[in-house]
Design a protein that fits this description.
69% of the residues lie in helices and 5% in strands. The chain is mostly helical. The protein has one domain (6-143, 230-337). Strands 1-2-4-3 form a 4-stranded mixed sheet. A hairpin with a 6-residue loop joins β3 (186-189) and β4. It is globular and about 60 Å long.
């Protein structure tokens, strides 16, 4: 029993199968462009932001197709101009972050040709932590506006639920996601004082009982320290990447930027199945936490059914793709867990 009709499963499949083709095309295109850039020796390509911008620009056709696919599916609400502005912001921010990450690496490699790896590894780990701390207050506002939850009755209920979970929250924020999409979502972000729970405004039309289950799920991530664990793993991964780079490029220089990005892509794809498996496990733990905290199985089942149909989640993805990169259990799996 999946909890979904044959028509619902077929509709989800027809929406996602072309997206998976686009995903593979995007990966091949990224690898091909970066591979080509490693073979070129133009003066401009000595600047990491230039490499990052060229690599990002090469992926725009696939991103444009995804946008139109979502428009055709009735999900994307953003105008083409708004979409272009967001992509421009992403490219600029990614180029700046690439410069912030690689400029110290190249300086240390030049200044300490035999001992650069250890300070660089420590610096890479600290940069991951810093980005996790600053992202909610520096990066997220670039793309969304946030406001406190204005429904006072719902806010009181959710704050009481957080207190019951032993994880009181300073603020429950609402993001203006509806200007981009009809899909719904919620998430936790930040570390320490920047940690917060964010609900998409598209979620507010959901019945209160289901919103409570959503919050309980996000509280589960906090109580079980999933964000902390994932942050620690990302920090370790950044440090490990520097060590691997040292083995392959003992004396990295700016012209190695494309190679560094290609190496990062290869390692990310290789480690993705393990990361996805851990993420799915954390999602199941948070689901169980939400059931235990709310005790409302009916709301849980209604929520995950409605989320799957509203967001048109893939109800039966290809197995190889599921184990490779799905960070969440499928909706039928989540409904089965509540049975």
């Amino acid at each position: 029993m999946t909890g979904f009709t044959t028509q619902e499963m077929a509709r989800a499949r027809s929406y996602h199968r072309p997206r998976y083709v686009a995903l593979l095309l995007d990966l091949v295109l990224s690898a091909a462009v970066l591979g080509l850039l490693t073979q070129l020796s133009l003066p401009l390509l000595a600047a990491p932001p230039a490499i990052g911008t060229i690599a990002a620009a090469a992926r725009l056709p696939v991103a444009w197709w995804r946008y139109h696919h979502d428009r055709a599916g009735g999900f994307a609400t953003q105008s083409p101009q708004g979409w272009a502005v967001d992509r421009g912001k992403e490219i600029v921010i990614d180029a700046l972050l690439l410069l912030v990450a690689l400029a110290p690496l190249f300086w240390l490699a030049r200044r300490f040709p035999h001992g650069w790896v250890w300070p660089t590894a420590i610096g890479a780990a600290l940069l991951v932590f810093l980005l996790g701390f600053l992202a909610p207050v520096v990066l997220e506002p670039v793309f969304n506006r946030f406001r406190p939850l204005e429904d006072e009755a719902l806010a009181r209920r959710l704050h009481a639920l957080a207190a019951q979970a032993g994880a009181p929250v300073r603020a429950i924020l609402v993001a203006d996601a509806s200007r981009r999409t009809t899909k719904t979502n919620a998430y936790v972000s930040g570390i320490g004082k920047t940690r917060r729970v964010v609900l998409w405004d598209t979620l507010l039309a959901t019945p209160e009982e289901q919103v409570a289950v959503v919050l309980a799920h996000e509280l589960g991530h906090r109580v079980r320290r999933h964000v902390a664990v994932l942050t620690a793993l990302a920090m370790a991964g950044a440090a490990g990447f520097v060590i691997v780079l040292r083995l392959l490029r003992p004396h990295p220089v700016p012209r190695d930027t494309a190679f560094i990005l290609l190496l990062g892509l290869a390692l990310e794809l290789a480690l993705l199945p393990a990361g996805s498996a851990l993420a799915r496990r954390f999602e199941r733990v948070a689901d169980r936490f939400s059931l235990d905290l709310t005790g409302d199985r009916a709301a849980y089942r209604a929520l995950h059914h409605d989320l799957a149909t509203t967001n048109l989640s893939d109800l039966s993805p290809p197995k190889w793709l599921y184990y490779w990169m799905f960070s969440h259990p499928t909706a039928p799996e989540r409904l089965s867990d509540a049975s």
